[in-house]
Write a structure and sequence with these properties.
Chain A is of the alpha+beta class. In chain A, the strands form two sheets. In chain A, strands 7-9-6-10-8-11-12 form a seven-stranded mixed β-sheet, with helices on both faces. In chain A, strands 2-5-3-4 form a four-stranded mixed β-sheet. In chain A, strand 11 and strand 12 form a beta hairpin. The longest helix of chain A has 19 residues.
Chain lengths: ~325, ~325
């Protein structure tokens, strides 16, 4: 059932052979974006949907410290007039994300469906002889909890877009009263963070090589994703502070998804070396937010229980 | 956006590392099954949908002569009561196909959506030092056109199910008057062919190793898929006969999809050796249906133009 439509994207044979750098492990992940569940087409363009689907999958590679090798895009688009244009627009956004992430689209499939849905599978690897991919389960008491950047920008961007009635807000000047930048600039930056999130691929690789013990990407909210890391590792945590993106609230930083920053548990010495390496490579210095503790029941922010707030999938 | 739901299937980390046999190429494909487009839930059970999605993707590997390594399943299920059961039923069918095809499910994602849709990505490879994966484009004048078995059973099965008002027909005894087997047995066999098609993985590998020049799986109809092979190769064909599955019509063999038999263009000497090898391994001897000719405009069955009949995707 490989759709004819995909032939427009230069993919013809039933299966594609991928240039795979020998030696390292093959790392794979799949991620879906569904209209009305993960994305609202009055707030995001079809190209944004393609971008987000591909970047969401790439963020799963970033979260284990893998480098992308290739992506496959399965696209479901509603029938009727304009569906060909819609498919092309979504694929164009996916192609932009593919270029930004250095991950060529090597296969795909287009189907008709009742609503827009995109499932992206990404393939990646780690360098031969290097540390293996990092899971969620390796955090140890005494590890530092780092986050690669402030959170909540995507959620704040969605709030701003909703207040302005959708995507048209991009070209407007906002009327908010914020200190750090011109209101219109901030609105645009936050909307961009919502519509075009960026996977932290380089940070993930550097963290793995620096000795990170556990990692997860903030796709469903810092609080929920940190709980998941702690659950998998059988540990607790004490957070002193949460880095909040300018223009976002702390609740948005804790509970808003799709920031794609990485949460990293790493030994203190390795944390310093990792931070220096990030700065040397022109990346933001990761922010220390707390420590890992042995008692699994301790899940605190500033001494109070941190709830499992965040994007809870309705399925499963 | 890796759904929590998928954790029920033992898949927890953001990305999974796959045991990949070193040396051979990485071959990938993605295939989608959407309720109402590719499958009718009054004719097929949720488990059948999972089976068909995984087998459809495996058939793409069979069509290039690759051996499966792993699969990723992206599942969209309608919300509301029972959606968890629906997701589990679909995954159970995918797991059955996974076992039948020797292709472990290594990753997945569950999302809520308006309708049931399953996108399966499969990874495969070919043995180190062996012939590379076979595309559609290598057929040469004088090649024999083989098909691995008679076609049309899936389309005939769907016809039978429709006549009997759906999946319940499985347990009934049919009333048709057919010669070769008991009517009820034939109805059951054809319904099974529709609901549980099987990818010709072993035949694909044997054909590649035997020197097949071009291959394609019959997913959209023998006529349409043979035209595609001829288009890609820049050749024509003359068919003498078309193998029709017992209980199916020739139109169903030519235009019905999802039989997953392989169409193979191969030199005459290699064709004999390939056939003998199939028989030696307990497989059906491939059926010679015609030859490849140089004139691209010749696309004939018994001297008359063969139309591009078959399942035309509505998209693209």
């Amino acid at each position: 059932m490989l759709g004819n439509g995909i032939e427009a994207f230069g993919l013809r044979d039933d299966a594609a052979a991928v240039e795979f750098p020998g030696g390292g492990p093959l790392v794979v992940s799949v991620d879906s974006v569904v209209e009305g569940v993960h994305v609202d087409l009055s707030m995001s363009s079809p190209a944004d949907v393609g971008w987000k689907a591909l970047m969401g999958a790439l963020s799963d590679l970033a979260a284990v410290g893998a480098t992308p090798v290739g992506a496959l895009v399965a696209l479901c688009v509603p029938g009727g007039s304009g569906h060909g244009d819609l498919a092309l627009a979504v694929m164009a956004g996916a192609a932009e994300a593919s270029a930004a992430g250095g991950c060529p689209v090597v296969g795909g499939d287009v189907s008709e469906a009742g609503e827009l849905a995109v499932a992206v599978t990404v393939l990646g690897t780690t360098e031969t002889g290097g540390p293996p991919p990092v899971g969620r389960a390796g955090a140890r008491p005494g590890d530092v909890v780092l986050v690669t950047g402030p959170c909540g920008a995507s959620a704040a961007g969605l709030r701003g877009l909703r207040a302005r009635g959708g995507a048209a807000a991009e070209d407007e000047q906002g009327e908010e009263d914020q200190e750090e930048e011109e209101p219109g600039e901030q609105v645009g930056r936050l909307a961009e963070a919502h519509r075009r999130p960026v996977a932290r691929l380089r940070e993930g690789v550097l963290a793995r090589v620096a000795g990170a013990r556990a990692m997860i990407d903030v796709s469903d909210g810092l609080a929920l994703d940190l709980h998941r890391l702690a659950d998998a590792s059988g540990v607790g945590f004490r957070l002193e502070s949460v880095p909040v993106a300018p223009g976002a609230t702390e609740d948005e930083a804790l509970g808003g998804g799709e920031d794609y920053e990485l949460l990293i548990a790493i030994g203190r010495g390795d944390a310093h070396a990792f931070g220096d390496r990030c700065v040397a490579e022109g990346l933001r210095r990761p922010i220390e937010t707390g420590i890992v503790v042995e008692d699994e029941s301790v899940r605190n922010l500033r001494g109070r229980r941190l709830e499992r707030m965040g994007w809870q999938h309705r399925v499963g």
